Automatic annotation (TrEMBL):
Domain Calcineurin-like phosphoesterase: 56-227
Protein name: Metallophosphoesterase
CDD domains with a match to the protein in the record: MPP_YkuE_C
Keywords: Hydrolase, Metal-binding
Organism: Deinococcus rubellus
Source organism, top-level taxon: Bacteria
InterPro entries, per the entry: Calcineurin-like_PHP (IPR004843), Metallo-depent_PP-like (IPR029052), Metallophosphoesterase_sf (IPR051158), TAT_signal (IPR006311)
Region forming the signal peptide: none
């Protein structure tokens, strides 16, 4: 659904605050250099209930191809992603910051089309994707832009999961929910069809879904926050586009606010938030390097 007036004003205020701080950092050149430095490849190891053998999951979040991110940067990210030799690659939303009503970014899509993994390449939509579809300016035509981009990605063997899922292996299910700000997320629909006992991963661009999610999955994978994009010593992120602020800024996070009566706290859903790759609002990062994330998951009791 479109942003409410309150959400719009809140987002505008946060961007203004980020911009004010950003210009101070940019004046020294450090923020600009960090913004366009090569992305880190960060590996995290964790157990996941339901797995019968390990799986390597690669996360690419928030590419934001458009005015601040060019094709050369995207090409470098794809090269690094391919070098990691993951079992499955997940694209966690905010692919583009361009007007899709004028022309689809075929060169960018061709770069994404180079991605390949034994268990496939999968993705979900983010709020900037919905803006690029024309959600706020073209209320009657934006679904056509979404469908067109979905089809183009499918031709490149990238499947978008929008409140749906698929079995990747007998012991591993992957679901994807719609974006919180632009769409209508439906967690139960996203996990429908999962085999009993299989590990259940869910992609959600916005990590806020985790806070109130029912315990229907084991691990939620998100981006959206950019880790705050601009962080200061002792203070942390100046702005985190989440209802939960620093709690959901980056890394491992815990959910389970809406557990069913009698459920065990240790079975609460868990999440991981990537700092992402691209930029939004201002062309800088500070103490918050861009990252490609490898989750090395193994069976857990």
């Amino acid at each position: 659904m479109p942003l409410t007036r309150r959400q719009f004003l809140d987002l505008t205020f946060k961007r203004a605050a980020l911009g004010t701080a950003g210009f101070g950092i940019l004046a020294g050149g450090a923020g600009l250099a960090q913004a366009y430095a090569p992305a880190q490849l960060n590996t995290h190891r964790a157990g996941l209930r339901g797995l019968t053998r390990p799986v390597r999951v690669l996360l690419l979040a928030d590419l934001h191809y458009g005015p601040l991110i060019g094709l050369g940067q995207v090409r470098g990210w794809i090269d690094k992603a391919l070098s990691a030799r993951a079992d499955v690659i997940l694209l966690l939303g905010d692919f583009v910051d361009v007007d899709l009503s004028a022309q689809l970014p075929h060169a960018f899509l061709d770069e994404l089309g180079r991605l390949s993994a034994p268990l496939g390449v999968w993705g979900v939509w983010g709020n900037h994707d919905y803006s690029s579809f024309g959600l706020l300016s073209e209320p009657n035509t934006w679904p056509r832009q979404r469908d067109a981009l979905t089809a183009e990605l499918a031709q490149r063997r990238i499947r978008i999961l929008c409140n749906e899922g698929a079995m990747l292996r007998p012991d591993l299910f992957l679901g994807g929910v719609d974006d919180v700000w632009g769409g209508v997320p439906d967690v139960p629909a996203a996990v429908r069809g999962a085999l009993t006992g299989a590990a259940r991963m869910v992609m959600s661009h916005n990590p806020d879904v985790l806070a109130d999610a029912p315990p229907l999955f084991d691990l939620m994978l998100s981006g959206h926050t950019h880790g705050g994009q601009v962080r200061l010593p002792l203070v942390g992120a100046l702005v985190v586009p989440s209802r939960y602020g620093q709690r959901f800024a980056q890394g491992w996070i815990e959910g389970g606010a809406a557990q069913s009566p009698g459920s065990k706290p240790e079975l609460a859903p868990r999440g991981f938030v990537s700092r992402g790759l691209g930029l939004t609002t201002i062309p800088l990062r500070n103490l918050c390097p861009s990252e490609i994330v490898m989750l090395d998951l193994h069976p857990a009791g």
